[in-house]
Design goal:
This protein folds into two domains: 4-39; 45-119, no CATH class. The protein has five helices and three strands, in the order αααββααβ. It has helices at 4-20, 31-39, 47-51, 78-85, 91-101, and strands at residues 62-67, 73-77, 117-119. The longest helix is centred in the N-terminal third of the chain and has 17 residues, at 4-20. The two termini are 50 Å apart.
């Protein structure tokens, strides 16, 4: 068990370290952080805008689409998608086609057949 003097010394050292810590939770973020977030090329595209992009405009290496219905995920490299569907193809249409080509939920009714795409933004 530390003595009262040692406890005071440890508490003072901990307070000093806390004051030197740049990542304190209540400290405001530096201005550079906000600027770097806004300069990130992914910041200017919302999910809807990303879905409407042509494959030739997509900067990601791997494209990923998942189904909300059967929870299946399909991935394809952007280069392969361009080769198969063309650079002018819209990512949303390509993603739906990828899911439909391997759909496992076939009921026979047009309204119910097919997968329900969930576009991942990461």
């Amino acid at each position: 068990m530390p003595t009262p003097k040692q406890m005071e010394k440890l508490a003072a050292e901990a307070a000093r370290r806390r004051d030197l810590s740049p990542a304190a939770p209540e400290a405001p973020l530096p201005a550079e952080y906000g600027e770097s977030v806004l300069k990130d090329p992914r910041a200017d595209a919302t999910g809807a805008e990303m879905r409407q992009r042509r494959l030739s405009e997509v900067q990601r290496h791997v494209l990923r689409i998942s189904c909300r219905r059967c929870e299946r995920t399909v991935e394809i490299q952007t280069a392969d998608a361009v080769r198969l569907y063309g650079g002018n193809a819209v990512w949303k249409d390509v993603a739906q086609r990828l899911l439909d080509n391997t759909c496992q939920q076939r009921t026979g009714r047009h309204e119910e057949d097919g997968c329900w795409p969930a576009f991942e933004t990461s």
